[in-house]
Design goal:
Blueprint: H1 2-13, H2 16-22, H3 75-82, H4 97-110, E1 125-126, E2 143-144, H5 176-179, H6 183-189, H7 231-238, H8 246-249, H9 252-261, H10 267-271, H11 286-299, E3 303-304, E4 316-317, E5 323-324, E6 327-328, H12 329-332, H13 344-356, H14 368-371, E7 374-375, E8 382-383, H15 385-396, H16 401-407, H17 421-426, H18 428-437, H19 447-454, H20 461-476, H21 492-499, H22 503-510, H23 558-569, H24 571-605, E9 610-614, E10 623-630, E11 633-637, E12 643-648, E13 654-660, E14 667-671, E15 678-681, H25 685-702, E16 705-711, H26 713-719, H27 723-741, H28 756-765, H29 770-777, H30 784-793, H31 803-815, H32 818-828, E17 837-838, H33 839-850, H34 859-872, E18 880-881, H35 883-889, H36 894-898, H37 911-917, H38 925-928, H39 932-937, H40 942-952, H41 962-966, H42 992-1006, H43 1008-1035, H44 1041-1044, H45 1046-1065, H46 1072-1078, H47 1092-1122, H48 1126-1132, H49 1148-1153, H50 1156-1174, H51 1177-1182, H52 1184-1191, H53 1194-1206, H54 1215-1237, E19 1240-1241, E20 1243-1249, E21 1253-1259, E22 1271-1276, E23 1285-1288, E24 1297-1303, H55 1307-1315, E25 1330-1336, ...
Parallel strand pairs: 13-16, 26-27, 26-30, 27-28, 28-29, 30-31
Antiparallel strand pairs: 1-2, 3-6, 4-5, 7-8, 9-10, 9-15, 10-11, 11-12, 13-14, 14-15, 17-18, 19-25, 20-21, 21-24, 22-23, 22-25
Helix pairs in contact: 1-22, 3-15, 3-18, 4-9, 4-11, 4-13, 11-15, 11-19, 11-20, 24-50, 27-28, 27-31, 33-34, 33-58, 34-58, 43-45, 45-47, 45-54, 47-50, 50-52, 50-53, 56-57, 59-60
């Protein structure tokens, strides 16, 4: 190809190349983009300039809305009526197809308006029902899409400035159709070697450039194939001239194109050359564009001949390997794979064939290839080219036929037959049909059909005038026109040479064809010219056009799209699974840490055990166990050395040892009477034999009789009594036991099996072992209480309890009188059976009761209690008590003994007894029945006591509730629970509506700060959402995005604005230093800074919901973008797409994974899924480190957010608007924390306290100021410097050191406890140092702002109150003014031994509290809901100890100790009576979520009343 291009250059410009190579260019070079051709109007004729109208625009609204139905006929109907006719009618002027082809090429060089406008506007063509080509099924809903062309944005604003379309190429005859309208386009075509154009793999064809801007790279809309081959690419492949001499060779294009394109009847006017006219606008007119396209369309034949230089018209190979006489235009126009157009010789044959072939007649008829089967736009493979041209004319705002003739000075036409008299005579039905479509109104006839109807041999007067006007303006207004001698570009000789150059010269120069095989004027074929066509080509003998199909852009993508969405939805599930695995691993590690010490102790006890598998039944899996033989018992433990079962070996038991005789002889069954059987499986017989030998020796040593035999393994397992079978048997045992004790009907005892008589007999004859008896009481077999009770009930002394033995003792506790119960207790603890209880036996009795509180009293304390009880009852001189003395000692507690039971599993205690026996003493009771510490200071008279007793109306012992003694299952109504106080204020009866309104008002009053802040925040977020949603719903039509995806874009953009705001300002909730500072300012009155963490969670929850909605919106967007044509996408995303003619959009996966917003969006979903799952309450408690590490992904989150929004696909980036200020504040707050974090602090003292509590005392940094109730974050250098954990300070602000009490509740705190364990040797302890961050404020430090405050601490949650109590006592001791006048401290603990360090603090408070500021109430919850003998006796001892020694039996404090959980609602009600003048009481709770929820619920219930308001501040751990 390069050789032929060089040859063409030599033929066309002669020796100029050598001169140009030696001398520099001395003339002005024309710009590629057409600018500055006219030195006054620089934009005239340039790329992107508007079209210049010859006639005023005709729009429906006068501005831009095109005319259409019903004013104008349907374009498809019009094309069918006016342009349909037979093919094969030869041109009256013998025009060749090559001339038609070249005419289209010249037209494309001058004007291009095919580029769709932005935003996309559609002027679709509605197909009439029953159309044989497009709607043969008469559906009536077929629409051929037509997209309006790009317009000048400065037009279309008013009737005086109607819309004008833009020309996308230069408006000069400068070869821009080949070389492009930019320098980069031209460079892409060059090889930069020898002045030649670049060729591809085949040197005969241009290079297949990858840029979508190059003309011949436009892909086939049906297949997406690119390349210079095919009918579409044949022109650019032949016509290009060499570069860089475009300035010299370019003028041959106007020379050839001008003469070839001007109609014959206008040639004479075109020859007149007045010279260059600088004031003449040469811009292309829309009338010229329409007229040229319409006229050329009538000349297009249905097929194209191919021949060689010897005039042989060759057969054309079809795609199915058959042959035809010509190329079918409708099937070959876009085809890049056509077998006949793959070589340079094929192109030569095509050009020779077009030069010999006569075009269709110049009339109104268009062949079906153009009328019905022209390559279609968008999803349609076919369209009506003429209907599209009509719509283009309406889009251009072309005037009517009559107006155009009048404006151009042509004679008016008043009758339809005057349009074309010849047509009226030959085919008058066409004009009549067209007139009918326009309702016989000639003024409505459009320019295009009217001008086309004029054609006969040549274009009619209208089209000829339009074309002549255009070429005259092009010639006379072009400063670079080759005939303009004033531009100094060419000499007279060069002008003459150029004028004499024809297309024949070009074709001969650049192709291999024989000059003799081509006529001199290739635009016409006359008689005598070489190679006449065989005959005028019609549709006969040509392959049929491929019918129209509608392409589905989403075809084949449905499954993958669904999988992708499913995978995105699985992100939370995958994160949840990962978090679950991490939590399980952390829990396992934690249990291993906890069990290391216990296993080391147990392993010392259990040495030499035998490993085996315990068979538990057919439905239960076997478990690995270790069988250990000990004196008098067999111990079965699991892999963690936890005792699973202990089998007692006591004579005169008889043990049966059954061995399996088959299946490897590996099974062993140990049958012990009155126990469920033990079945063991071994790997080999030798292992079983080892245990059997040891077992025989143990049984002989214990003196037990045993029998031994063999069975088959299946029979052995059938004979075994499993644990499940034993539990069913005991269930029947207890049912009938309680039915007799409580007088329950047999039906109420439960449904029995079918063989009920046998089961009942078996159950009533079975006996309970000590372990089963202890399990029924909820105790351990080794407890002293169990031993005493079991020994008393086991009358026959066989070591088991029969049905009758259990029934006898149960009846006494369920129905016995106080005397019977005290006598039973007396007998239980008369260990020597002499009828007397000594002090030692009395101490053993109390110790058996106190076992349930973890032996919290020492032997000296028990001795002191017993001595005081003896002394109080007048028995100080006695060493032993009779039953009468024992009962006398309990004389003041008959009511408690009356309702005392034996708490057995399976018996539900009636609620009325629970209420009556609840051990809670309310605050107001001190005013009525003063506590010992108040009684000592304020002695009361006997009259006061009597008045109190009358007011209380306490039920006496002589008025027992008879209903309870009868049956527990019936409702008790004979008495009411004790009311300690009566309301002092008058209560008014209000309507339900008034009460609801009052509750609402109180709620608003209580949470007005929270409601205000939440309302403002969500109002801003909602406003941002609505602003974006409104914009894209009603104000963004100019972008076109709303018309493409309305719901998706509104949802995605609205949520994006809210998410940007939320994810930005959520940072402020984590600025701990800023919050601590601001809560001390006046802003604390308006902003609830203590709820920052809750607000953080609320924002995060809302943001994740909006994120899901945002993602759903983008899923809709991706789907719609995947089915939208490229012309639409290029408008929506001009930075991503360029409309190169291909209508194939990108697939869904490209949007998800190959775009920056898509990929970052997927990563954001993954990051959020990880962060949110690990931040949930459950996983945060089980794996705090996992939460800590994953929450630091927020850095990646914000980086991705910035990248995600900065790409600006749809709108300009906005995230930085919200993010910048919060980010700067957050960074500043972090820098403040970092300045403190990296200061190493020495630990002064470390102490390991009971219940896994570690006490750390460390140096107080210089300048470290804090308030009681505040908290800090610490990191231990030995455990890593990046993991910080929050703990509340237990030291007071006046102390010189800081202290923390840390409970080992997780792996980190457990390892911390190990690190600070005291050294084993005598060496000095050297503790690891700490990093400290804080202090940070919270609601607990507001305690001093209330006149009355209630502090509720549960478990390790008492730590903030330790600091508060010490601070209060210190301030009162130094006479510091404190607004708070009274503090009630409620300490809720499972057992007081868990936090004995707090008891020391409370003891210090009691000693220094001279003004009675603090009232302490301790609730031991371990004994909650156990209203049986043990709890009753403990309660009696506690009250006696409190009464005699003025301190608690359990804590040693003067504070009252209660059993059970605190009843918060009655407690708060009693505070209203004690402090009626206080309008607001502060309640501060810290502890488990269940406790704080109960406190919050009680406060809400109390606050519904129009009385004292309780303001609750809480913190969970």
């Amino acid at each position: 190809m390069g050789f032929y291009l060089a040859l063409a250059w030599t033929l066309l410009v002669g020796s100029w190349t050598a001169m140009g190579a030696q001398n520099p260019i001395s003339w002005e070079v024309q710009r590629f983009d057409g600018w500055y051709n006219n030195l006054m109007e620089h934009r005239w004729g340039s790329k992107g300039s508007r079209l210049q109208r010859l006639v005023p625009a005709s729009y429906a609204d006068g501005v831009y809305q095109p005319l259409g139905e019903p004013h104008l006929p349907n374009p498809r109907k019009l094309s069918n009526t006016a342009m349909r006719g037979p093919a094969g009618q030869a041109s009256l002027r013998n025009r060749t197809v090559l001339g038609v082809f070249f005419g289209y090429h010249v037209l494309s060089d001058l004007v291009s308006v095919e580029t769709p406008g932005c935003p996309a506007e559609f002027l679709n063509i509605h197909i009439p029902p029953g159309d044989p080509v497009f709607d043969p099924d008469r559906r009536g809903d077929v629409v051929l899409p037509f997209q309006r062309s790009r317009w000048d944005p400065e037009t279309g604003r008013s009737p005086s400035n109607p819309r004008d379309l833009s020309n996308e190429v230069t408006g000069w005859l400068d070869g821009s159709a080949i070389y492009g309208s930019s320098h980069s386009w031209s460079d892409a075509l060059r090889s930069f070697s020898g002045g030649q154009l670049a060729s591809g793999p085949d040197p005969a064809f241009p290079r297949d450039a990858q840029s979508p801007l190059l003309m011949w790279t436009a892909p086939d809309p049906a297949t997406g194939q690119r390349g210079p081959r095919g009918l579409y690419g044949a022109g650019p492949a032949v016509v290009p001239l060499p570069q860089p001499v475009r300035a010299a060779a370019g003028p041959r294009a106007p020379a050839v194109g001008g003469r070839g394109a001007v109609p014959a009847r206008a040639q004479e006017g075109y020859r007149h050359l007045p010279g260059y006219r600088p004031f003449l606008d040469p811009s292309i007119s829309p009338e010229f564009l329409a007229a040229s396209e319409q006229f050329f369309s009538t000349l297009v034949p249905p097929g194209i001949y191919m021949r060689n230089a010897s005039c042989h018209f060759q057969e054309v190979i079809r795609t199915n390997s058959s042959t035809s006489r010509a190329l079918r235009v409708c099937n070959s126009y876009w085809s890049r794979k056509h077998p006949n157009l793959q070589r340079a010789e094929d192109v030569d044959a095509l050009l020779l064939g077009m030069a010999s072939q006569i075009a269709e007649r110049e009339d109104h008829v268009v062949v079906e290839d153009v009328l019905d089967f022209w390559p279609g736009p968008l999803k349609f493979s076919r369209t009506d080219y003429l209907a599209a041209c009509l719509q283009r004319g309406r889009d251009l705002g072309l005037p009517s036929y009559t107006k155009a003739r009048a404006a151009l000075g042509l004679a008016p036409v008043t009758r339809w037959q005057d349009i074309n008299p010849a047509l009226s005579q030959n085919n008058h039905t066409v004009l009549e049909a067209i007139a009918a479509l326009y309702n016989q109104d000639l003024s409505r006839l459009e320019l295009l059909p009217g001008g086309l109807l004029e054609s006969h041999g040549d274009p009619g007067p209208l089209f000829s005038t339009i074309v002549l006007d255009q070429f005259l303006r092009l010639r006379d207004g072009d400063r670079y026109w080759f005939e303009n001698t004033r531009n100094g570009l060419f000499t007279e000789e060069e002008i003459a040479e150029i004028r004499n150059t024809s297309l024949w010269d070009v074709l001969v120069a650049v192709t291999r064809m024989n000059p003799s095989a081509l006529q001199p004027n290739v635009f016409f074929w006359h008689t005598g010219d070489p190679c006449p066509q065989p005959r005028q080509l019609g549709t006969e003998g040509l392959p049929a056009c491929v019918p129209s199909i509608v392409r589905d852009y989403f075809e084949g993508s449905g499954f993958g799209f669904g999988v992708t969405i499913g995978a995105l939805c699985c992100f939370p599930l995958v994160s949840l699974l990962s978090a679950w695995i991490v939590a399980r691993l952390r829990r396992r590690n934690f249990k291993r840490l906890q069990g290391q010490d216990r296993q080391s102790i147990m392993s010392e006890k259990l040495v030499g055990g035998v490993e085996a598998l315990e068979w538990q039944g057919h439905k239960e899996p076997s478990r690995p166990v270790l069988v250990h033989l000990q004196p008098g018992q067999i111990c079965v433990v699991d892999g963690r050395l936890s005792v699973l079962r202990t089998i007692q070996l006591r004579p005169p038991q008889q043990v049966n040892l059954i061995l399996s005789g088959n299946r490897g002889r590996r099974a062993l069954l140990l049958k012990i009477p009155k126990e469920y059987d033990l079945v063991l499986l071994f790997n080999v017989e030798e292992e079983r034999q080892v245990l059997v030998d040891n077992l025989r020796a143990a049984l002989k040593e214990s003196g037990l009789r045993f029998q031994e035999w063999e069975l088959r393994e299946q029979e052995l397992m059938r004979a075994a009594v499993t644990r499940e079978q034993r539990s069913h048997l005991l269930e029947t045992f207890f049912r009938h036991l309680f039915s007799q004790v409580l007088d329950i009907d047999q039906a109420d005892a439960g449904t029995l099996p079918l063989d009920s008589s046998q089961k009942v007999r078996e159950a009533l004859t079975c006996e309970l072992s000590r372990a089963e008896f202890a399990e029924s009481l909820g105790l351990k077999p080794q407890d002293m209480f169990v031993e005493s009770m079991f020994s008393l009930a086991d009358k026959d002394g066989n070591g088991y309890l029969s049905f009758r033995e259990f029934l006898d003792i149960l009846v006494v506790f369920m129905k016995g009188s106080p005397e019977e119960k005290s006598r039973l207790m007396f007998r239980m603890y008369d260990f020597d059976g002499n009828g007397l209880i000594s002090k030692d036996e009395f101490i053993r009795m109390l110790r058996s009761f106190i076992e349930i509180s973890n032996n919290c009293l020492s032997k000296d304390q028990l001795t002191e209690v017993v001595e005081s009880m003896f002394r109080e009852s007048g028995f100080q001189d006695k060493e032993e008590l009779t039953w009468e003395d024992f009962h006398f000692m309990l004389r003041d507690h008959d009511s408690e003994l009356r309702f005392t039971q034996l708490c057995v599993k399976g018996v539900e205690v009636p609620e009325v007894i629970k209420d009556l026996c609840r051990r809670a003493s309310y605050i107001s009771q001190e005013k009525i029945c003063p506590s010992p510490r108040v009684s000592a200071r304020c002695p009361h008279s006997n009259a006061d006591v009597e008045w109190t007793a009358q007011r209380l109306k306490c039920p006496m012992d002589t008025d027992p509730p008879q209903e309870i003694r009868r049956r527990f299952g019936k409702k008790v109504t004979s008495f009411q629970p004790l009311l300690f106080t009566e309301a002092h204020r008058e209560k008014f009866q209000r309507s339900r509506r008034h009460q609801t309104l009052q509750q609402f008002k109180r709620f608003i009053e209580n949470y007005r700060r929270h409601i205000g802040c939440v309302a403002v925040f969500y109002a801003i977020a909602g406003g941002l959402f609505l602003e974006r949603a409104y914009y894209y719903a009603y104000r963004a039509h100019h972008t076109g995005i709303t018309d493409t995806t309305r719901v998706g874009i509104i949802l995605s953009r609205g949520t994006a604005a809210s998410i940007s705001f939320m994810f930005s300002y959520i940072l402020l909730t984590m600025c701990r230093n800023l919050i601590t500072f601001l809560r001390e300012t006046f802003l604390h009155r308006y902003v609830p800074f203590d709820a920052a963490v809750d607000f953080h969670r609320l924002i995060a929850s809302t943001a994740i919901i909006l994120t899901v909605l945002h993602s759903a919106g983008h899923v809709v967007n991706v789907y719609l973008f995947s089915i939208s044509p490229l012309s639409v996408l290029s408008c929506l995303f001009p930075g991503l797409f360029h409309d190169d003619g291909s209508e194939f959009p990108q697939k869904y996966h490209w949007w998800f994974f190959q775009t920056v917003p898509g990929l970052t969006g997927v990563l954001l979903l993954l990051v959020l899924a990880i962060m949110y799952v690990f931040a949930s309450h459950h996983f945060r408690r089980h794996s705090f480190r996992g939460f800590w590490l994953t929450h630091h992904l927020y850095i990646l989150l914000y980086v991705l957010l910035i990248i995600h929004g900065s790409f600006g696909l749809i709108q300009l980036p906005r995230f930085h608007i919200f993010f910048l200020v919060p980010a700067l504040i957050y960074v500043g707050d972090k820098l403040v924390s970092l300045s403190r974090k990296k200061v190493e602090i020495s630990v002064v003292k470390a102490e390991l306290l009971p219940s896994g509590v570690t006490h750390l005392q460390f140096q107080r940094p210089q300048g470290f100021e804090y308030k009681s109730g505040q908290w800090v974050r610490i990191a231990c250098l030995a455990l890593g410097t990046t993991e910080y954990h929050p703990f509340t300070l237990t030291s007071a602000p006046h102390e010189d050191t800081l202290s923390l009490h840390i409970r080992a509740a997780g792996p980190w705190t457990t390892r911390l406890r190990e690190i600070y364990s005291p050294p084993t040797g005598d060496g000095c302890a050297k503790y690891p140092k700490l990093y400290l961050d804080g202090p940070f404020g919270e609601g607990h430090q507001e305690w001093h702002k209330f006149e009355v405050s209630v502090l509720v601490g549960g478990g390790i949650g008492v730590t903030p109150f330790a600091s508060i109590l010490k601070d209060l006592v210190f301030k009162s001791s130094v006479s510091c003014h404190v607004f708070c006048k009274k503090i009630y401290f409620i300490w809720v603990t499972r057992t007081q031994r868990q936090f004995e360090w707090l008891a020391d603090i409370i003891r210090e408070v009691e000693e220094n509290d001279c003004q009675d500021l603090v009232s302490v109430h301790i609730y031991i919850t371990q004994l909650a809901e156990k209203f049986d003998l043990r709890t009753t006796m403990l309660y009696i001892c506690e009250r006696h100890f409190q009464k005699v020694l003025n301190r608690s039996l359990f804590t040693g404090l003067r504070s009252v100790t209660h059993f059970g959980r605190p009843p918060f609602e009655p407690f708060f009600k009693s505070l209203q009576e004690v402090h009626p003048q206080v309008r607001k009481i502060g309640v501060f709770s810290c502890g488990p979520p269940g406790m704080t929820k109960n406190v919050e619920k009680a406060c809400q219930l109390i606050n519904k009343q129009d009385r004292t308001h309780f303001s609750h501040h809480y913190e969970n751990f």
